[in-house]
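Researcher: For the annotation table, I need structure tokens for ATP-dependent DNA helicase RecG. Please keep the output clean. Sequence:
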Amino acid sequence: MRPEILNPLFRPVTSLAGVGPKIGEAMGRLLVGGDAPEPPRVADLLLHIPVGLIDRRNQPGIALSPEGAIVTLEVRIDRHMPAPRGNKRVPYRVMAHDDTGEIALVFFRAEQNFLERTMPVGETRFVSGKVEWFNGRPQMVHPDHIVDREAFEQLPMVEPVYPMTAGLARKTLGRAMRGALDSLPDLPEWQDPTLMSRERWTGFKPTLETVHAPATPAELAPEGPAISRLAYDEFLANQLALMLTRANLRRATGRARIGDGRMRRAIIAALPFTLTGSQQAAIADIERDLASDERMLRLLQGDVGSGKTMVGLMAAATVIEAGSQAVLMAPTELLARQHAKTLQPLADAAGIRMAILTGREKGRERVDILAGLDDGSIDLVVGTHAVFQAGVEFRDLALAIVDEQHRFGVHQRLALSAKGAATDILVMTATPIPRTLVLTAFGDMDVSKLPDKPAGRQPIETRTVPLERLDQVVERIRAAIAEGAKAYWVCPLVEESEEVDAAAAEDRFVDLQRALGPVVGLVHGRMKAAEKDEAMQRFQRGETRILVATTVIEVGVDVPDATIMVIEHAERFGLAQLHQLRGRVGRGSKASTCLLLYKGPLGEVAHDRLAIMRDTEDGFRIAEEDLRLRGEGELLGTRQSGAPGFKIARFEHHAHLLEIARDDARLIVEKDPALNSPRGKALQLLLYLFGRDEAIKLLRAG
């Protein structure tokens, strides 16, 4: 039951004056994402923090206006210069002047009658906006305000600037924000008084009032008291949620799994290589976790080829020796079948009864597999998301291994772990996505790393190439395959899209086949499973030398003699995907190359992303940069990156606050796991306000 004091903040924004269904829908896109099932709440609006402000006290005059500065100018309108009829590319200009010089007010897709009424020639107007200097002349594109003297005297001299979305006017958002502030109750203080005094923080309500009605730019500074206070609230809500959830997971175990070692010894004896030192250390970490009466939640991170799957098999063998079952879940059927093919000989050598379960298993075969899992005659099942669907029951599922975990949502992993009694979880990835990195840094996951590279493995040379040089790339590929090389060519889409102007895989396949002949193959996610298998086998056998593909080959493709990876429109991929795709080459002893084809001009984030790929092959560093560029995603939800993760806290400004929040949350949960103290009751309000649903459910259940 939500505390009654919060009810005004949990009303939909459409309950505010001036916010109808259409504006509420626009606010939903802005505040909680376009796929939100319900309209945003008043609390969501209040936690939408300004990113800057317009200071109308800054009135330097035209000639003294700095480049890029938001200024207010008192100008006299001189003349209108409409665009030529029918030419929408040329803007409408209104020329104006003050005592210091002349400025052009620029409007695209302008309505001439409206502009002539708003800015009559010879009249004085106050215009506010960003000044840009073009060829030595100042201009202001689409001023924020154009008003006469009487209206200007009614404008606030300092106005906050919010992130916006299409269909929502800034004035409308401002009015709604003022209505939301009026409904904000006086909440009991949840922060520690000593910390409040030391950091010069005010209460939650005065802080929000300061942030949404700042008097100076300093009041919106990320490191200032107001934003820091809200950032700490957000950190503390996350830390409490993680600590309570983890404590609940730990309490839910009570089963130690200790094997006798016979299967593990048989697996090691059957291996054609020796386990690396980091593999042995990771196996020891997992065995300690499994022997404990606390539930395991461990991340195994290692680049492609570092031996994660073998560590996972050894973990599975441990619980199977103890009389239980294990499941290995892969994100694609391609990867699941590759795992099964790799593991089957070792499972046979160890006496492990293994099966594969994907959407392809039908009829009697599927019935037999489900019966084997239910009666315990199958020890290990390898599969896709099919393994956690309704109707799949285990006799005693002890270990869930989730491979390439960034392809699964949290709820999917929880659904899998719920198939057993306090199932231990091992997640494996070559590149931790931002949320995983945050969970790891926050102490929610234990970590084992496999930094060792297999003997003889060559580094991958990564280059960025503009798409204008596509013909040169094709000629380079022609020369390479003539010498026996194999290459992947990855395209983002299967068919043309009006929204994404990336080359389609099918079209690129036709183009390359026309240029290079029948050595070009094609695989994408819309092909039937048998067609994909055939295309992959032809590439593996060398009947085709170039495989044009979508990201279906991101994981699960093992062709050691492939040495070239071309990624078209690389600027459209995330770092984790780029790293995974690059990992398809460099798997043998020959030098390999990854070409990142991009369409310019690149934005700042895309430029940084491609630069990182050039600079490093280290998965953890790539994940750290991914976190910096994309955001951390929901810690307890299913979103993998970006909004709606931390809306207020910024690691570059508030990292020290995270450390304090982590320690504070741990002490609170250790002393008061039900949050029943007076401060605990206030902290429950904090959890509700910041939407940490998993922790709220625990408190309700407790």
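Researcher: And a one-line annotation?
Model: Residues 47 and 647 are 8 Å apart (CA to CA).
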